[in-house]
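Open question from group meeting: does this chain pack into something compact, or does most of it stay loose? Before anyone orders reagents, we agreed to write out a predicted structure and look at it together. Recording both the input and the output here so the notebook holds the full record.
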Amino acid sequence: MDELTTPQEWARVYRSLFGLPYVHVTTPGFVVLPLNDTIAALNTPEPLGGLILHEMMERGTPGPVLVRDKPPRRTFLAVFDGYPGDDLLELLERNSVDIGPHRSNVILPTGFGRHTHEGRWWAREPQRDESLPLLSEVVAATRAVL
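Structure tokens returned:
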């Protein structure tokens, strides 16, 4: 991975090696994962994100988790399998947890260290041959720690 130098190389690796679909490079040179009918992102504040990741690991359903420092948030990547009900959405909202809007993008880091050009790093990077968890699994883990 040390030999990856361009955003295009990173996008190719995210697609081929880690199986993240639809990853591409934007005109400014960011590597992005579009959120669509199949891919979702759940965003949480810190330190709640750390608790959710721990819960997901305990359940055996961890997935890739991004961290950004400003503002301090975590983003859990997942397979979209529907939105939770209104009561659960309200609980998430009260705790500053949101499900990334459809048709937006998640900027992926071009490095595996903590300091990247994008100001994002992996708390848990994508794993080869590991599928993304379902959004409902990430929501269930979130609810368990609230």
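Observations to bring back to the group:
The mean pLDDT is 94.
DSSP finds four helices and eight strands in the chain.
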